[in-house]
Design goal:
Strand content: under 5%
Number of domains: 1
Number of strands: 0
Structural class: mainly alpha
Helix content: over 70%
Radius of gyration: 18 Å
Largest sheet: none
Shape: globular
Distance between the termini: 45 Å
Length: 235
């Protein structure tokens, strides 16, 4: 399913705007219940789990309770889209290795006694968890929200809006999720929002071009797995 076919399945612009607002309220309402109910990344509880499933929960509520006909992109659509799947798998590894290489050459960063085997062992146990949570997120952001927003603005502004909503979902746990840095929220938050909006352009374009959410799931999974594994070894 190409971009035009995906967008053609959507209803009116006013209905799209209404549903975008409802989805945003739902996903953030569920997310902010997280700290109230308890739990955090180091000690997950019911609240943290609710925060993690908020994107997929909001998307499914829109789909089945409000009868939103947005196709969530569960089909693979492999034919003709191999390059997008390859890009999704390789983008984060190449980018992260490039940054690490630059850090190593300039002395700005090191890996504390990390070997390839140690990295594989560190990534092994949580790799399935990272995939599950990437799926939970991407059903919301790229399965539902990206094609829905594209019916209002099929361009950079639309992707930026998706990125802003995506970033806002992180706000309840910002300090816990970025506990590895001493940077204050005054500078971290705007950089994070901008970075998420830029990422949303890449994720969203691939979603609309392929008609499938799976490239986004793979990209998100690879990014989380590699980044979270390496963070423990950065000095």
């Amino acid at each position: 399913m190409n971009r035009q076919a995906t967008l053609a399945l959507h209803p009116s612009r006013s209905a799209a705007v209404r549903n975008i607002i409802i989805f945003t309220l739902l996903v953030n309402g569920l997310a902010w219940l997280g700290p109230v109910l308890g739990g955090d990344p180091t000690n997950p509880g019911i609240g943290f789990l609710l925060w993690g499933v908020a994107p997929i929960a909001a998307a499914l509520l829109m789909k089945f309770l409000l009868r939103d006909k947005t196709p969530l992109g569960f089909r693979l659509y492999l034919r003709g889209n191999g390059r997008w799947y390859l890009l999704s798998l390789l983008l984060y590894p190449v980018a992260i290795l490039t940054v690490l290489g630059m850090g190593w050459m300039t002395g700005a960063g090191t890996l504390n006694s990390f070997t390839l085997s140690a990295l594989v062992m560190a990534a092994g146990p949580p790799v399935i968890i990272y995939f599950i949570f990437a799926f939970f997120e991407e059903v919301g952001w790229r399965g539902y929200l990206a094609p829905r927003v594209a019916t209002v603005h099929d361009g950079l502004l639309g992707h930026a809006l998706v990125g802003l909503i995506w970033a806002s979902w992180h706000f309840p746990y910002m300090t816990e999720l970025w506990a590895h840095t001493s940077e204050g929220l005054v500078t971290l938050l705007p950089r994070f929002i901008l970075g998420t909006m830029i990422s949303a352009v890449v994720y969203g374009e691939i979603r609309l071009r392929t008609g499938s959410l799976w490239p986004a799931v793979l990209m998100h999974w690879m990014g989380n797995t590699i980044a979270n594994t390496l963070l423990a070894g950065l000095g």
